[in-house]
Design a protein that fits this description.
The complex is a heterodimer. By secondary structure, chain A is mainly α. Helices cover 71% and strands 1% of the residues of chain A. Chain A has helices at residues 14-29, 33-42, 64-88, 92-115, 135-161, 172-202, 207-211, 216-235, 242-265, 272-275, 277-300, 304-334, 337-352, and one strand at 361-362. By secondary structure, chain B is an alpha+beta fold. Classes of the chains: A mainly alpha, B alpha+beta. β1 (361-362) of chain A pairs antiparallel with β11 (311-313) of chain B. The complex binds iron/sulfur cluster (3 copies). Residues 31-37, 74, 173, 175, 277-278, 280, 282-283 of chain B line the site of one iron/sulfur cluster.
């Protein structure tokens, strides 16, 4: 790198190795057999140069509120589905609790989104245009529509619970009339609300997020299902939560399978941030809590306190999944190897397949 | 906007009277690292300082990277014998930069202290440099080079030229900038429409509309655009006015910022500040077509001189971003300069992602339906 002996103090690679060592330490403490052994032989010593080890792509300026939104959006969407199901099958407590949970989660999520903006006072600019190429634009519209439906449904619920005490005046019949359509709308919009954030993350140049774009929607809807099912088990008597338990169990099964498949199919370098450091720990605990919650649901789902505990475990598992995926992407930006190596690999693969005319680097 | 590579992306933006697409050709082989471009850009655009002054320990680069307040960034890369060896092994070649001679006049330096004098003889013909066509002087007898610096290195005994570059040292300098991509990730994912395609085919942020959501930052495959965390600046439309007190300066925090290709200057048929300030014409500005043509000519010329390590970056309309408005001539792999080796605009996969998300949504609704159907009425 240099000819001056003083420049030997400049460490383009050393900090990375050190960091890697630190990152791996907590992972190995948990003895992650299969996953740990997987990365060792498959990833050769980095054979790439970088510009002083500096990042190539930039992480978005998204902080914890966005991670929270990923979780809350899914929780809200799943809750609306359960609320509508409860409504159709005569489960009034499930309907009430899930309707109120949905609007609470959606409101908190919206606040989180707005606070994370660089200029929160301009949040309405999100509604300036509808842009199909922008998941953030479509997602904002989706959230607006969803929250309107869920809000109306929740208002109707509150009015019912308080025995028509809301000062609605002549609008009460209107609210009664739109009650069910609004709830149905919230349920139908709830599923895309849980899924679109996966597209939002996949549609970035952040290496680990981008590498997840095939399967992340399945992970996210599963995570939303188990979270909403868990919340129902936590808040609602067992006599009304049998479908919620099924929903949650399906979510657990879906997430375990989808997460496994996703990691399998990802680039072997880009997957590393999901298995190391804080995100690795969080995702591991997410998996454990999901399994524990599912076991509790199956074995003791008919006992109120077991169901509540299992539900809490499932909700926590979903939050950990979202934060883990979120943080893994942010971590993957810090080290240029996650940008360079997958790109070199795919370039080499294309070249090996005889496609040589689509490289950004050309000889003339 | 993610469609097939359009020669002029203004067509996608439906301008009635599109201008020719404008662009840069940054020829890093003649850059001297003076940073005039960086300064001119900062001055013209009234960008605040990035941070406290600090030495980053990366050659003469104390700027670090492109960012919200740095729209031109000059990279400095010092390559020593080990890199040279690796470059030779991997087929990349080393040459002297086409830098103006800056050494002391002939004879003023003792031969024993010239850089040439420090070169071990055994490095003159390393294994793995069979062709000698790289112009590195490694096997100078059959290298068809006429560059004076090369020949001075090849025959160190004449001491005629003291050149800072030697067979085991070279200095790469490259002035990086927003690529103004044909298929721009930042533009595609911007939810407010603050980012737009100008009539010149460039990509510009409207800072009075951006709400700082940060999606563009993640959408750029080159890590160019960034959200500004603080700073105020004087409105650019009052350039002749006396400096304004801080109280009336426009707050510019929290919005995404990047090179505008000097949209305001372009509107007045002016050359962008960086290109105008560049003393070596390393930064060339003009119609994108002619920039690409110039770049092709230059790389051909360099190859004819045996400098086969030179390559173009961004000139290929079939690449992952449909070609860039800012084309570069590089002397090593892109990642050496902090550029991605195979960037791909993420929105290229968006239809597929929506399809997958649609399947997931259908699955979630179906599972919900089954759960309640099997649960029956209470
Ligand atoms: S380089 Fe990045 S910021 Fe510049 S136009 Fe392309 S995607 Fe946008
Ligand atoms: S074109 Fe203008 S804004 Fe862009 S880098 Fe050059 S001087 Fe800066
Ligand atoms: S591009 Fe031009 S102005 Fe910028 S550092 Fe190089 S020679 Fe100087």
């Amino acid at each position: 790198m240099s000819v001056s002996e003083f420049d030997n103090y400049r460490p383009p690679e050393e900090p990375r190795r050190k960091r890697k060592g630190r990152r791996r330490a907590p992972g190995s403490a948990f003895r992650r057999g299969g996953d740990g052994s997987r990365e060792m032989p498959m990833v050769p010593e980095p054979e790439f140069t970088s510009y002083y080890g500096r990042p190539i792509v930039k992480a978005p300026p998204w902080e914890a509120p966005i991670g929270a939104y990923l979780f809350l959006g899914g929780l809200a969407g799943g809750s609306s589905i359960l609320a509508f199901g409860g409504e159709l099958t005569d489960r009034p407590l499930l309907r009430r609790n899930m309707r109120l949970s949905a609007i609470t989660a959606a409101s908190l999520g919206t606040v989180a989104l707005v606070t994370d903006l660089g200029r929160p006072e301009r949040f309405l600019n999100m509604m300036r245009t509808i842009k199909p190429t922008s998941p953030m634009s479509l997602g904002s519209w989706l959230l607006a529509y969803y929250a309107t439906h869920a809000g109306v449904a929740a208002a109707a619920e509150v009015d019912r619970v308080t025995h028509s005490k809301l000062p609605l005046g002549p609008f009460r019949p209107v609210l009664r009339f739109v009650d069910r359509p609004a709830a149905a709308g919230a349920a139908v919009l709830g599923a895309p609300l849980a899924a679109y954030t996966a597209v939002l993350l996949g549609d970035t140049a952040v290496p680990t997020w981008n590498a997840m774009h095939k399967d992340l929607p399945f992970v996210f809807v599963s995570s939303a299902s188990l979270a909403a099912g868990g919340l129902a088990m936590l808040t609602t008597p067992i006599s009304e939560t049998a479908p919620a338990r099924t929903f949650a169990l399906a979510g657990v099964a879906g997430e375990l399978v989808a997460m496994h498949l996703m990691k399998e199919r990802m680039d072997s370098v880009a997957v590393e941030p999901l298995e190391q450091g804080r995100p690795g720990t969080w995702l591991m605990w997410s998996e454990r809590l999901a399994i524990a919650g599912a076991a509790g649901t199956i074995l003791g789902g008919r006992r109120r306190w077991v169901a509540a505990l299992s539900g809490a475990a499932l909700v926590a598992s979903s939050a950990l999944t979202r934060f883990g995926v979120f943080q893994a992407g942010k971590d993957s930006v810090k080290d240029p190897k996650y940008t360079v190596e997958p790109q070199r690999n795919r370039l080499a693969k294309r070249r090996a397949a005889g496609i040589t005319d689509d490289s950004i680097t050309t000889a003339g | 906007m993610t469609g097939e590579a359009a020669a002029n992306p203004t067509a996608d933006a439906h301008y009635d009277h599109p201008h020719p697409r404008k662009g840069f050709f940054t020829d890093t082989s003649i850059c001297i690292g003076c940073k005039a471009c960086e300064v001119a850009c900062k001055e013209w655009n009234r960008n605040p300082v990035d941070s406290d002054y600090e030495l980053l320990g990366s050659s003469y680069d104390n700027t670090g990277a492109l960012g919200a307040n740095t729209w031109r960034h000059v990279a400095f890369i010092e390559q020593g014998a080990d890199q040279i060896e690796r470059a030779r092994e991997s087929g990349r070649a080393l040459v002297n930069l086409g830098m103006p001679k800056v050494g002391p006049p002939q004879g003023s330096v003792s031969p024993t202290t010239t850089p040439q004098g420090t070169i071990p003889v055994t490095q003159a013909a390393p294994a793995g440099c069979a062709s000698g066509a790289c112009g590195c002087g490694g096997s100078a007898t059959d290298a068809p080079v006429t560059d004076s610096a090369d020949s001075s290195v090849a025959s160190s005994s004449d001491g005629s030229s003291v050149h800072p570059d030697t067979p085991d040292f070279r200095w790469l300098m490259s002035s990086d900038v927003c690529k103004h991509c044909t298929n721009a990730g930042c533009l595609d994912v911007c939810p407010t429409g603050a980012l737009f395609r100008t009539e010149y085919g460039t990509v510009v942020v409207q800072d009075d509309i951006c709400n700082g959501c940060g999606t563009c930052v993640a959408g750029c495959p080159f890590g160019v655009i960034e959200r500004r965390s603080d700073g105020v600046f004087e409105p650019k439309n009052q350039r002749d006015a006396p400096p304004m007190p801080d109280t009336v300066k426009v707050p510019e925090h929290g919005v995404a910022q990047k090179c505008t290709l000097c949209y305001d200057r372009m509107k007045n048929d002016q050359t962008p500040a960086c290109a105008q300030a560049c003393p070596t014409t390393s930064i060339k500005y003009g119609d994108r077509d002619s920039m690409v043509a110039t770049a092709r000519e230059r790389v051909t010329q360099m190859h004819e001189q045996g400098k086969t390590e030179s390559r173009l970056y961004g000139a290929n309309p079939k690449d992952g971003v449909g070609g860039t408005g800012s084309v570069f001539l590089l002397l090593d792999e892109p990642e050496t300069y902090g550029l991605p080796p195979d960037p791909r605009v993420p929105t290229a996969d968006l239809p597929y992602m929506f399809k997958r998300a649609g399947m997931a949504v259908a699955g979630m609704l179906a599972v919900g339906a089954v759960a309640f159907a099997s649960g029956g009425r209470r």
